[in-house]
Amino acid sequence: AFGADIYLAEGNLTVDGCTFNSTTATYGGACLAMNSKSPAGEKDAEAYAKLKAVVKNCTFNNIKTGTSLTDGAEDGPCGVISCVHGDITVEGCAFDGCEGKSGTIVALASRPSRWGYKFGNALLKMNNCVIKNSSLVRLGLIYINGKDGDWSDDPSRRSAAFINNTAFINT
Length: 171
Description:
Blueprint: E1 6-8, E2 12-16, E3 19-21, E4 24-25, E5 32-34, E6 52-56, E7 59-61, E8 64-65, E9 81-83, E10 86-91, E11 94-96, E12 99-100, E13 106-109, E14 122-127, E15 130-132, E16 135-136, E17 142-145, E18 159-164, E19 167-169
Parallel strand pairs: 1-5, 2-6, 3-7, 4-8, 5-9, 6-10, 7-11, 8-12, 9-13, 10-14, 11-15, 12-16, 13-17, 14-18, 15-19
């Protein structure tokens, strides 16, 4: 359902020079899902949003994610790459023929931990990528969502994305 190829719940990950073909996920993160596990206690809460991943020089072909509007949350993050917490860098990757619901290519979201004062930031840096022949049902090929849509002045409740030198072709 989530993270059909890779599911990152703790730590750091680098994926370099890999090819992903025809993967399907009912909900999100068909090729990579990042969603830190809930901390065991308040003292662990600082680690809640510390996931880090680098995906570079990879090819994603014919990936399907969030396969219908009735699967999962109606507007939940359902990308080829889904990052609910943490930092992700996507560099020099090609996405071709991908289909999805919300955030077909990258879905980025932050949400609170069990303690109201601890929120997980999500950060996307996407550079030198090509996205072509890809489609979505709703809410963008790149989907960026803060804490329940609340863009407050508290920077710990925000998602942010920096997209540079990336081509969107026939989308």
